[in-house]
């Protein structure tokens, strides 16, 4: 029968000890990390000498703090920056649409002016023809159709 090892009473961790180590390591990591995504669960557990299963099962508040730190800036400033960036891109898109709209307006205005000029020229030519012809209605001879069939 295999011999069982007895645990050394000094190696048994008290309930608050693991939590305190995790909190201390998390505070250290969050202060030192250049980017929030660099702090990982594995690194936190390795430095605190805690298994990842233990972290997930018994230390949810610490895990929540880690996740909160890992998220991109969730502050009001970050929201304002995202909103400002969205508005900048929207403004650029609107400027592009405005330029296209101005080009269309120019095109249609020049087409209107050209049509207006052509109609004015046609009206002048018709008036000139009427005055030259001194136009009076001309009666066209009316021919009646014969009832005899053509031969």
Could you please describe the fold and organization of this structure?
It is built from 5 helices and no strands. With 151 residues, the protein is mainly α. It is rod-shaped. The chain has helices at 15-32, 41-48, 52-58, 60-70, 76-133. 7% of the residues are buried.
The rounded Rg comes to: 45 Å
Shape designation: rod-shaped
End-to-end distance: 137 Å
Give the structural class.
mainly alpha
Individual helix count: 5
SSE topology string: HHHHH
Q: Major β-sheet, in short?
A: none
Indicate the low-confidence ranges by residue numbers. Answer: 1-13
What is the total tally of β strands? Answer: 0
Give the strand content. Answer: under 5%
Residue share in helices?
55-70%
Average the pLDDT over all residues and give the rounded result.
Answer: 81
Counting copies of identical and different chains, the oligomeric state is single chain
Features:
single chain; 151 residues; mainly alpha; disordered N terminus
Topology:
Layout: H1 15-32, H2 41-48, H3 52-58, H4 60-70, H5 76-133
Helix pairs in contact: 1-2, 1-4
Concise account of the structure shown:
The protein is mainly α and 151 residues long. The chain has five helices and no strands.
């Amino acid at each position: 029968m295999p011999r069982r090892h007895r645990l050394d009473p000094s190696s048994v961790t008290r309930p608050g000890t693991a939590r305190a180590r995790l909190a201390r390591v998390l505070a250290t990591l969050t202060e030192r990390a250049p980017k929030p995504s660099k702090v990982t669960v594995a690194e936190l557990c390795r430095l605190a000498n805690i298994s990842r299963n233990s972290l997930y099962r018994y230390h949810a508040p610490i895990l929540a703090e880690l996740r909160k730190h890992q998220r991109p800036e969730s502050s009001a400033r970050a929201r304002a920056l995202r909103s400002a960036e969205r508005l900048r891109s929207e403004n650029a898109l609107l400027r592009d649409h405005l330029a296209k709209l101005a080009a269309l307006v120019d095109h249609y205005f020049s087409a209107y002016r050209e049509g207006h000029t052509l109609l004015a020229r046609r009206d002048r030519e018709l008036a000139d023809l009427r005055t030259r012809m001194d136009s009076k209605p001309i009666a066209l001879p009316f021919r009646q159709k014969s009832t005899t069939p053509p031969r």
